[in-house]
Design a protein that fits this description.
It is a single chain. By secondary structure, this protein is mostly helical. The chain folds into two domains: 48 residues, Beta Barrel (Butyryl-CoA Dehydrogenase, subunit A, domain 2); 150 residues, Up-down Bundle (Butyryl-CoA Dehydrogenase, subunit A, domain 3). A two-stranded antiparallel sheet has the order 1-4. A two-stranded antiparallel sheet has the order 2-3. Strands 5-6 form a two-stranded antiparallel ribbon. The longest helix is centred in the middle third of the chain and has 37 residues. Flavin-adenine dinucleotide binds next to helix 5.
């Protein structure tokens, strides 16, 4: 696609030719609705052009540099929720006469979860700091989003394991964290695309 041909518009609800389509039935993030948008002979006046004609692709890329820090933060929140629930449960749940946190297999999972969360938080804060300083954040945003989202999935998966059978039920929050976390490795560019962005930036610097 020729990126120079893309232009951003604001399209008001109710504009003739613009309709909301099917509401998606999603695995997670169900509190946030996602729906199809349908455009059929939809004519938009010049006054609704957002920015400059032909600059839409550049605008989208700039938005993604910032948006990816938000997805990293969202991932971090999910990971922390899953971790905190796991620490509490591991201290409460007793098996073989002891809290499951006293089994090294569980304690080491908690150690891995906490370490990954800490690393994801440092990357996310570094990206946020670069944005606050108005620096170019393409690489660090992609790194933070890629790493934090993968950590969210890993931590939520470990959380389900720590909860055992209860983890697989809706009695506890961890099944929701598990479902919600997966979007973070997909939305605003998949993990594969983040690696593409990071490697391109690295090679430009080399
Ligand atoms: C719940 C939800 C909400 C969303 N909200 C929005 C929104 O508000 N606004 C918006 O614009 N979009 C939104 N999206 C779309 C989202 O950004 C895309 O789904 C996402 O970027 C992946 O694109 P795709 O679905 O077309 O996957 P595809 O591009 O078809 O990718 C399929 C697979 O191929 C891989 N792949 C594709 N290209 C390459 C490549 N060049 N190299 C290596 N691997 C590749 C991908 O990593 C993936 O594994 C939303 C998606 C979801 C699920």
């Amino acid at each position: 696609m020729d990126s120079r041909g893309i232009t951003a518009f604001i399209i008001e609800r109710g504009t003739p030719g613009f309709y909301g389509g099917k509401k998606e039935n999603k695995l997670g993030m169900r509190a946030s609705e996602t729906a199809e948008m349908i455009f059929e002979n939809c004519r938009i006046p010049q006054s609704q052009v957002l920015g400059t004609v032909g600059e839409g692709f550049i605008q989208a890329m700039k938005i993604l540099d910032g948006g990816r820090i938000s997805i990293a933060a969202l991932s971090l929140g999910i990971a922390k929720g899953a971790y905190e629930a796991s620490v509490k449960y591991a201290q409460e749940r007793e098996q073989f006469g002891k809290p499951i946190a006293s089994f090294q297999a569980i304690a080491f999972k908690l150690a891995d979860m906490a370490t990954k969360i800490q690393a994801a938080e440092l990357l996310t804060r570094k990206a946020g700091d670069a944005k606050d300083r108005h620096e170019k954040t393409t690489k660090i945003s992609a790194m933070a989003k890629y790493y934090a989202s993968e950590v969210a999935v890993e931590v939520a998966t470990d959380a389900i394991q720590i909860f055992g059978g209860y983890g697989y039920t809706k009695d506890y929050p961890v099944e929701k964290y598990y479902r919600d976390s997966k979007l973070c490795t997909i939305g605003e560019g998949t993990s594969e695309i983040q690696k593409l962005v990071i490697s391109r930036e690295l090679l430009k610097e080399a």
